[in-house]
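Table S2 (continued). Query chain:
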Amino acid sequence: MKHSDIAQDKPMMKKVAKDAVKSHEKRMHGKKYRAGGKTNLEMKTLGRGMAKVANQKASVRKVPKSGI
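Corresponding output:
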C-alpha cells in the first residue's frame, strides 16, 4: 500500500473504529442506573451505598415511600 492510499483511507478507518468502540462500550457498560441518580433524600434515609443500589434500573431493593 502506498502512503497516499493510507492517507485517503485514514478518515474512513477512524469512523469505523469509532463506531466499533462505541458499540463495544455500550455492550459492556450499558445504562445500569435510572436517570437523575441517587437523591439527597435517598442518601439520608438509606445511606450512600444503599441509595446507589436502590438507584439501579432493575431494582435490587425497593425504597419505601420514595416512588422507586
